[in-house]
Amino acid sequence: MPEIRITVNGEPQEVEQGTTLAALIERLGLAGQPCAAEVNKALVPKRDHPSRELAEGDTVELVTLVGGG
Length: 69
Hints:
Blueprint lengths: L2 E6 L2 E6 L4 H7 L7 E5 L2 E3 L14 E6 L5
Parallel strand pairs: 1-5
Antiparallel strand pairs: 1-2, 3-4, 3-5
């Protein structure tokens, strides 16, 4: 499958065309953690992560909670 270029948290990345937001989150090792996601400055609800396909030039911002004490 051809690859597309996206930006994740300010860093350029290449992913396969058809990659979903959920697949990207899993690829980055964030699956199973609380994670807020924006694509092109629009919040994507968690229920939509599996169906939201990424496209050439998308800008993705992922925010996770970090515990500490």
